[in-house]
Specification:
The structure holds two protein chains of two kinds. Chain A is mostly helical. Chain A has helices at residues 17-45, 48-51, 54-62, 83-109, 115-142. Chain B has a single domain (18-121), classed as 3 helical TM bundles of succinate and fumarate reductases (Up-down Bundle), CATH 1.20.1300. Chain B has helices at 9-13, 18-47, 49-60, 62-87, 95-121. Classes of the chains: A mainly alpha, B mainly alpha. The interface between A and B is large, with 37 and 39 residues.
């Protein structure tokens, strides 16, 4: 490919809700990487390399919920069940929920093109976001 | 809005998008897969009971872990490529090279994850 790709800087693209959500999707991906790295570093700090395999460490870092490591050879689960890890898990879960539900709306928009249909999709996405945020955070703090 | 597609399924399947199209499709399938499985996992954990335990037992099985690890790891690594290229548009020139780097990162990591899942399942 010899022709240079045409790109437009962010400040020249205009700002509206869709643009804000486009930026949110990218920044939330980076935020999830930050949560993941905190979980990963914490796992090694708490001795993961002596008691867990690679997949166990990944499962923990993707959501720092103590139930994700209960089947490992860890001598004690107490350090893995502190309020700090519940807070990290809640942060990652809420970020991922918003990122994921918006992603589903973007996919739905490719197939549902009527204004009424798109309104229904957006209404459903808000109901889902609210319901699954409450349920997910409840599960994280009570497990 | 009056957008219509007018693209038949046969024509869509014959589209030769190459590497970028493959990552686009896998990113969407992975994203929808994760949204579906995580929603069911949260619902099962929230409701509990025999049904909840039955669903979570499936999720903890090694076969399912291989499946969901593919979705999550590919979506995460591909998402990082998309994010970096979108935030630094000058990198768009190198998107095909970036896709090769992406596969070069994903395949060893995913293979290692599958290896550790299978060896753990076999009691290793």
């Amino acid at each position: 490919m010899t022709e240079k790709s045409r790109t437009l800087s962010l400040k020249h693209r205009g700002m509206n809700f869709e643009m804000l959500m486009w930026i949110f999707t990218r920044l939330s991906a980076l935020a999830m990487y930050a949560f993941f790295l905190v979980g990963l570093a914490g796992a090694f700090w708490m001795g993961a390399r002596y008691h867990m395999n690679f997949a166990d460490v990944m499962r923990w870092a993707f959501t720092t919920n103590v139930t994700h490591v209960q089947s490992t050879a860890l001598p004690s689960l107490d350090p893995w069940a502190t309020w700090f890890w519940k807070l990290v898990a809640s942060g990652l879960y809420l970020t991922a929920s918003a990122h994921g539900i918006h992603g589903m709306v973007v996919i739905a928009d490719d197939y549902i093109v009527s204004p009424g249909g798109r309104k229904v999709v957006r209404l459903l996405s808000m109901v889902f976001m609210l319901a699954f945020s409450v349920m997910g955070v409840y599960v994280l703090w009570t497990s | 809005m009056s957008m219509t597609r007018n693209v038949s399924l046969a024509r869509a399947l014959g589209y030769k998008g190459g590497g970028p199209m493959l990552t686009f499709i896998l990113h969407r399938i992975g994203g929808m897969g994760m949204a579906t499985f995580i929603s069911i996992h949260v619902l099962a954990s929230f409701l509990g009971g025999d049904a909840g335990r039955f669903i979570n037992d499936i999720y903890e099985s090694w076969v399912f872990q291989i499946f969901i690890f593919f979705f999550v790891m590919f979506h995460a690594i591909n998402g990082l490529r998309i994010t970096l290229i979108d935030l630094f548009p000058d990198l768009l020139e190198y998107q095909r090279e970036a896709i090769w780097v992406e596969w070069g990162v994903f395949l060893p990591l995913y293979s290692f994850a599958v290896y550790s899942i299978v060896t753990a399942a076999l009691g290793g």
